[in-house]
Each structure stands twice: as C-alpha cells, then as structure tokens.
Design goal:
Helix content is 51%, strand content 15%. The chain is built from eleven helices and ten strands. By secondary structure, the chain is of the alpha+beta class. The strands form three sheets. A four-stranded mixed beta sheet has the order 1-4-5-8, with helices on one face. A four-stranded antiparallel beta sheet has the order 2-3-7-6, with no helix packed on it.
Length: 351
C-alpha cells in the first residue's frame, strides 16, 4: 500500500517530467533515430539540472535520496515519451561513483555509463576484471549509447573501475538497434583506470526494475494512442471502437497494463521498505518478466488494431513496438530472469 504523500509526490514527478518526456510529439525521437550518439547532450544536461540522475543518490552525497517508487514514476513517464536519453544507465553508474566523479555525473559535466555485460542474456557480470597495477582490461557487450559516454564504469564480478572513454586502449564499436538507437561492444586493453565501489547486485536490480517502469510507459502510451484511433477511425459508417471484438481486445490490453503497474509498484514499495532482500529481488525478477511479456503484447496488438497503417514506419505506433523490443533485452534475458526467480524461491522454501 502506497501512502497518500508518496502517491502525490509520484504524480508531481510525472507532471514535472512531462515537459521533457512529451507524450504526443515524436518528431525529436524520429530525428535522433540512427544518429550517433542517439540522444541530445543538451537535453541530458536539462535532466541533470532537474535532478533526475540524483534521485537515488543519498542526500549526504549530493543527491535527492528518493525511493524506487519515485524513480519508477519518473522513468515510466520517459517511456511514455520514448525518451532516448540514457537515464537508467546513468543512474546505475552513479551507484559506483564518489567525490568529483559523482559530482560531474550529477551536474552533466561528464556522462559515465556502465559496461558490465560479458555474455548474452546474463543478469550480472560473469568474469573478474583483469588488473595490472593501475590499468584494467575487459571486453563488455551491449552497452547502450556508449558512443555518447565520457567515461565507462567497467564492472566485473569482483571489482569495478572508472575508465575514460578516450583513454588509450579503449575501443568502442557501436551497432544500430531496432528502435534507431545503438549498443556497443567496449574493448579495453590495459587502459588506465580508477577503482570504484564494486558490488553490482543491488544497482543492477534497481536498473532492471526501472527498465520495467519504462516498458510500462511505452505500453500505456501505445494503448492510449490505439484507443484514440479506435474512437476516430470509421468503417461501415461506424467508429471501429464500437465493434465488440475490438472492445474486448482493448480491455484485455488495459488489464495487462493495470497488472503490470501493480507489479511494479509492489516491487518498488517492497524495495523501499526492505532493501535488496531475497523477497525484494524475487519481486523485481517477477516484475521484469511480466513487463517484457505485457509490453510486447500491448505494442504488437496496438499495431494490429491500427490495421494496415500500423505497419508503416510513417505512423508513430510502430515506434513503441520497436522500443519495447530493445528495452526488453536490457539487464538479462527472460530465461535468466525466470531461472533467477526459481532459484530465489527454492532457497526461500529450503529456509
């Protein structure tokens, strides 16, 4: 149960995000597709001025010290507007930063992004960092918007380090993604680095839950657009939204969104109360699986309900499916999440 004060704060956050995360104007999103780095630094600095990257940073460290419920409300609004700026990745990186590095991240002076994935679909780093004095070596996969990073927080299974993106020995190879963004392979060969906080478990779980909230925003915005279309598109002299079969489809999609919202809020509230307990981590994994399935169904069916025009790139509804496909792959595969959830449940039952 979310108290009234927290609920009101969440709504205020959503309202404040509306100016950046427009729900109706996608010309900026289209303009940025298939460009490098795929987002606007000016918009990112505006987000920093509004304190978005500081939401999960403790007040003692210069942050806002807000909870996961507040953070998820903000990220949901970004999903509604298909905002490409890498907030979730940047917030994940802040979990490892201190001092000047953290201050530069929160101000927008520099942008550090996490490089942690060693293999496809993994939930956490698989390999330790290779260290030689003050240098590190690693090969990391699927780093979103890496071309826009000033620094990388390189995370291994045993340690983490801050490496400048332009340091000698760093090679970034970007690949286009379905939504018009990019992911990169980052190869680091004996690059100078600064050690940073090393435990990635809780930050990665928070990022995964935030990505679920982003998918909720994507799905609900796609559904809103579809319902509006059903009310205005006519066939046989009637709005197609008056046809019972389409009403039933729309109701089913609405229920998918409502259930996903309930899962996200439950997981976020549990995390805020308990921290990264076994039950809270299980709730995050369960929510992530539902988020991928629900957003996939809603965005796919939204295209079908639009008919032939929905399959054209000129119509905005297709942008939502493309985004859902890409974000679904962030922070682990469905198989890994299900296996992780089953493992946590079995441990709980044994205890």
């Amino acid at each position: 149960m979310i108290d009234v004060e927290t609920r009101e704060a969440m709504e205020m956050i959503r309202d404040s995000a509306g100016g950046v995360a427009s729900r109706e104007e996608f010309s900026r999103i289209r303009k940025l597709r298939y460009t490098n780095p795929g987002f606007e630094r000016a918009v990112w600095r505006e987000m920093c001025e509004m304190g978005w990257p500081a939401m999960r940073v403790a007040e003692a460290d210069g942050g806002l010290g807000l909870g996961m419920l507040h953070y998820c409300a903000l990220v949901e609004e970004m999903g509604r507007g298909l905002v490409p700026e890498p907030l979730v990745s940047a917030v994940l990186a802040t979990s490892f930063l201190k001092g000047d590095a953290l201050a530069n991240q929160l101000s927008g002076e520099r942008l550090a992004l996490p490089a942690w994935q060693d293999s496809r679909g993994s939930l956490a780093p698989d390999a330790p960092l290779s260290r030689d004095g003050g240098n590190v070596s690693a090969e990391k996969l699927y780093v979103p918007f890496a071309a826009g990073a000033d620094d990388f927080v390189v995370i291994g299974s045993d340690a983490a380090a801050l490496v400048a993106a332009d340091a000698p020995g760093v090679t970034v190879t970007s690949h286009e993604t379905q939504d018009g963004g990019n992911m990169a392979s980052v190869v680091i060969r004996s690059a100078p680095a600064k050690p940073v906080d090393a435990d990635p478990a809780a930050p990665l779980a928070e990022a995964s839950l935030a990505a679920s909230a982003y998918l909720l925003g994507v799905a609900e915005s796609a559904l809103d657009m579809t319902v509006a279309y059903l009310k205005t598109r006519t066939q046989f002299g009637k709005a197609i939204g008056s046809f019972q079969i389409l009403q039933h489809m729309a109701v089913d999609l609405k229920l998918e969104g409502v259930l996903l919202r309930a899962c996200i809020e439950d997981a976020a509230a549990r995390w805020d109360r308990e921290g990264p307990t076994r039950a809270a981590r299980a709730a995050v994994l369960r929510t992530r699986v539902r988020a991928v399935r629900a957003s996939g169904k809603i965005t796919r069916d939204a295209i079908q309900l639009h008919g032939g025009i929905g399959f054209t790139d000129e119509h905005d509804i297709g942008l939502f499916l493309r985004k859902a496909i890409v974000v679904a792959s962030h922070y682990g595969s469905a198989e890994a999440r299900q296996a992780g959830y089953a493992k946590l449940q079995s441990v709980s039952e044994e205890a």
